[in-house]
Every structure is written in C-alpha cells, then in structure tokens.
Amino acid sequence: MKIMVTGGNGFIGHTLVGHLLNEGNDVKVIDIKPIKFTHEKLEFVKKSVLEDIRWEMKDCDIVYHLAAELGVVNSDKKPLNTLAVNIDGTINVFRCALGTNVKKIVYTSSSEVYGEAREIPLKEDSPKSPVSIYGVSKLTAEMYAKGYVQEYGMDINPVRLFNVYGPGQGFEWVVPIFIQKVLNNESPTVFGDGSQVRCFTYIADIVSGIETVMKKGIKGEAYNIANTDQITMKELAESIIKISGKTLKPKIVGFGKETRQKEREIIKRIPSIDKLQSLGWKPQVSIKEGFAKTYKWYKENLGKEELFYE
Ligand SMILES: NC(=O)c1ccc[n+]([C@@H]2O[C@H](COP(=O)([O-])OP(=O)(O)OC[C@H]3O[C@@H](n4cnc5c(N)ncnc54)[C@H](O)[C@@H]3O)[C@@H](O)[C@H]2O)c1
User: Fold this and answer.
1) Cα–Cα distances in Å, from 77 out to 72, 81, 137, 186?
2) What residue's CA is closest to ligand 1, atom 35?
3) Is 134 an active-site residue?
4) What is the CATH number of the domain that holds 249?
5) Domain count, the chain
6) Residue 165 is part of which domain span?
7) Closest Cα to residue 40, out of 56, 15, 57, 21?
8) SS3 of the chain: helix, strand, coil, percent, to 5
9) What average pLDDT does the chain have?
10) How far is CA 129 from the centre of its chain?
11) CB 50 within 8 A of CB 85
12) Above 70 in pLDDT, residue 261?
C-alpha cells in the first residue's frame, strides 16, 4: 500500500509514519519541515498542504491528513495562519484527492471541537461549541469533510483526538511541561484550582485508533480516540511527581489575565469511546503506565533537541 501522511514530521505524524513503515507500507510524507529520519520506503515531499498536491497523491491509496497549526495558545497568536492551514489546507487535501485513486482519508480533528461539555461523556454527536480559534478551525474542516462525503461520495473519517501525550512531544504541552519542571526539581504549575478533568491518551493508542478507523471506519463517520481514565490537572502533577520519587508539590496558581483565562478553560472533558470500540479497538496503555514510560523517556532524552517535535 502507498500511504500519504500530511504533517508526517510532527509528534503524532512521525510515530504514525514509523508504524506504517514497520508494517511494510510505502509512505509519502508532505510537510513544510523536513522529516528527521530516512527509510528506503519513505519519500519526503517538502510542500505545504495549501499547495497543489494532486500529483503527489496520484499513486497513493490512502491519506492520513495530520498537517495543522496546533494548539489553543498558538492559534490565538497566529489566527489567520491557523484558519488558513487548518481549514483551507484541509479542503485542499480533499479537493486534490478528487479524481485520484485515493480510497480513504482520515483527518485528525480534536476534542477541542466540543468546547465545554453540554453532556458527559462526550459522544460523537454531542453538541459542539469550540471556545478557541483552533477548535473552530478543526470543526469547520470537519464540516467540509461531511460536504465532500455528501457531494462527491468521498470516504473521509474525522477522528477526534483527546489530549495526546508520549515521547517526543514538544514543551508547549502540559505533560512534557510538568515532566521538565519535575526533572529540574521545580514544582509543576497548575492553573485554576486543579480540578479540571481530562482524559490523556498515549501516542501508541492514538496510532492504533487512527489505523482502526482507516481499516474499519464507516464512510463519513467521526470517531473519538481517547483513553477514558480520568485525571484532574492537580492529580496529573502529583502523579508525575510520584513517578519521579521527589518531594515536590504542585504550585496551584489560579487563573489570571496574563496566564490562563477562566472563561476559556474546559472544566470537564470526558469522552465516550463506544463507537470506536464497536470497531474492535480499545486503548491498551493506562495513564499510570503511559506517564511512567513518558517520564523515563524524557529523563533519558532531555537536551537531545533533534528528538523533540515542536
Ligand atoms: N497533540 C495533540 O494532543 C492533538 C490533539 C488533538 C488533535 N491533534 C491533531 O493531530 C494532528 C497532529 O498533531 P501533532 O501533535 O502531531 O502536531 P505537530 O505540530 O507536532 O505536527 C503538525 C505537523 O504539521 C506540519 N505542518 C504545519 N503546517 C503545515 C502546512 N501548511 N503544510 C504541511 N505541513 C504542515 C508541521 O510542520 C508539523 O510537522 C493535528 O491535525 C492536530 O490538530 C493533536
């Protein structure tokens, strides 16, 4: 199989690409940043998803579309670029695939599309009301995906990823931030009162979830990919401290204008994963095991810049 991965040089993308190569596939990566490793079955094309990539798609069977401007804070700083890459870039991927041999596209959306939960757990058809430009951009692209499925009969599945973490993730994300602090013998800073609930999902489970949707996803359907182990932000900080064996305490700092605003904070984000489980998938890595693996990796690799995906 020849598989295209856009954003294949990113944190999730490079792990997915490694997995696909291990399975014997030919992989073509489209990214604006050069990929950090080589493989006889790997082809890298330095292009933006905003460019014409029809030619690159011609010999591909499937496309994993991951390329994006990421994160709530980043999208506040670069709103127009976020909207362009995440909406126009995604539409361009769909448009370029029309008339090629591409049989399916999996598009990585985000739990940010739900905003503050109107119901718990969050099912795929739960109300969506994103509170960030990033969330709006991911939801808008999902709506275009639906349009391409309805209008052109394309087979596209959006997958909504919940708080991904694991080796190589850059230092603007909470798990690496807390681990780095603890490794430096500093207290991790928790915003608000630390009672915000999240479900963190280990990178290997994300990759297997994405692959399951690619193989078995029903045409046009969206799927949550998540671990349903719940943890508060204070407990997250405490569990990383516990793994380290150090005698630190989380620093609870509340919300502020300069730091994190209360109005933008999602209090509870708990997914339902019944829909993906009905395809035979379930997460394999508990948060306890995942945090321990991730802590060990950062302890061994802190400072090796080439191994991190910003
Ligand atoms: N990391 C998470 O917790 C998380 C959660 C939910 C959804 N997602 C989604 O998963 C996908 C991958 O996320 P990640 O964590 O690997 O992010 P990342 O930032 O590590 O990777 C994104 C990649 O996209 C590339 N890219 C950016 N603009 C591009 C463009 N115009 N053309 C081509 N490539 C471009 C970047 O160079 C980078 O390699 C994204 O679509 C993101 O929205 C991630």
Assistant:
1) 9, 9, 14, 28
2) 67
3) yes
4) 3.40.50.720
5) 1
6) 2-307
7) 21
8) 40, 20, 40
9) 95
10) 19
11) yes
12) no
